[in-house]
Amino acid sequence: xxxxxxxxxxxxxxxxxxxxxxxxxxxxxxxxxxxxxxxxxxxxxxxxxxxxxxxxxxxxxxxxxxxxxxxxxxxxxxxxxxxxxxxxxxxxxxxxxxxxxxxxxxxxxxxxxxxxxxxxxxxxxxxxxxxxxxxxxxxxxxxxxxxxxxxxxxxxxxxxxxxxxxxxxxxxxxxxxxxxxxxxxxxxxxxxxxxxxxxxxxxxxxxxxxxxxxxxxxxxxxxxxxxxxxxxxxxxxxxxxxxxxxxxxxxxxxxxxxxxxxxxxxxxxx
Length: 270
Hints:
43% of the residues lie in helices and 18% in strands. The chain has 270 residues and is of the alpha+beta class. The model is unreliable at 1-26 (pLDDT under 50).
């Protein structure tokens, strides 16, 4: 609404924002889409001003009524910022989605318990410490305690665990960055466990995407038969009988996937 020769100001001398060609009003109110001002005149002079802000009850400010926070001096109208902010309080700011980039210490402690620690080479001569498969990561140097390369120290086991956790955290972050996604701590911890156990691949990425979308039903469906599909695709090259037998003789995998879903939903319980 254009008001020739009349200015509406907020706390004269302070920050003002032009509401229309000749009107100034509180920055925040003016920024609200759909805000309007209704002038009530008598014999050509402004007596009242009604401010209408979407989502709020409209307020009428009366000439020279200091209690209402509005005064007129000649052809200039003034609002008191404090009164406007009282009448049209700012809505609570929306919580920004978390952008977690690292696993928690609770997750580390859980992994230690779940994986168990064996300081001697086991699993057909390719695993040591907290499930560290050194044949899959030949470039990572291992500090052996003996010339036969069969034993490591507890400190070395924890160092190798940290290396793998950081690697999979990087894999998760790469996936999130590539797809412009963010996650909270619960999701990052659940994905860290999944990636630690199954690495980054199309199946783990599918779970990761569903978690970022908070699609609980999809996440649950993907995790329920995850290890069968993993074995079918990556271990037994499409042999369904062998894949099923693999799942049957490793019931702990089902428990682990259920735990990951629980972490995704509720976090890690101390």
